[in-house]
User: Which sequence fits this backbone?
């Protein structure tokens, strides 16, 4: 009887540990990844001293947007470059999926502010939201797209790097530290 209780307790502890591990992994995955909150993107850009990659997309209807994501943005090569050099922000304009009103309003205001006329449109922005470069879909896959972004950033006077360990997501501690630094710079 004691063995059964011990086995059940051990199984429950393992299940709980797995759920903690899963939560930690999901949280880490969000860190230094895509955000839909423009103010958060600006805070991270200020704290990490990196430009914002603002992707204006029609995710569920725009063929060129889907092609850009598939050929470049969803690749490991782009994700590594982005982790080293960019804050990723997505302003989505879907036709079939619901979005929170706050996000929809934010995206509409940003599209008007930056003069978005078609999709995909990509802006490279500084931490204050100033446009330092603009592009869209480019043929050639991830390598060509990353090269193109490096050229745009160089023209804007932004140095890029390929840090060996920078592609690792920030830990929750590092993210909190970056957010504190961003809050200090805004005060």
Assistant:
């Amino acid at each position: 009887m004691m063995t059964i209780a011990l086995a059940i307790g051990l199984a429950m502890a393992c299940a709980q540990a797995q759920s903690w591990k899963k939560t930690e992994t999901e949280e880490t995955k969000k860190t230094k990844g895509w955000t839909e909150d423009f103010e958060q993107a600006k805070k991270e850009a200020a704290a990490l001293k990196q430009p914002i990659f603002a992707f204006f997309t029609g995710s569920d209807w725009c063929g060129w947007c889907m092609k850009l994501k598939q050929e470049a943005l969803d690749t490991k090569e782009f994700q590594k470059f982005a982790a080293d050099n960019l804050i990723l922000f997505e302003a989505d304009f879907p036709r079939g999926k619901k979005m929170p009103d706050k996000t929809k309003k934010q995206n509409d205001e940003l599209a008007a502010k930056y003069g978005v006329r078609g999709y995909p449109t990509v802006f490279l922005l500084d931490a204050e939201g100033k446009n330092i470069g603009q592009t869209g879909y480019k043929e050639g896959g991830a390598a060509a797209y990353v090269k193109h972004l490096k050229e745009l950033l160089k023209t804007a006077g932004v140095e890029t790097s390929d840090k060996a360990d920078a592609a690792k997501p920030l830990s929750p501690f590092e993210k909190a530290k970056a957010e504190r630094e961003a809050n200090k710079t805004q005060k």
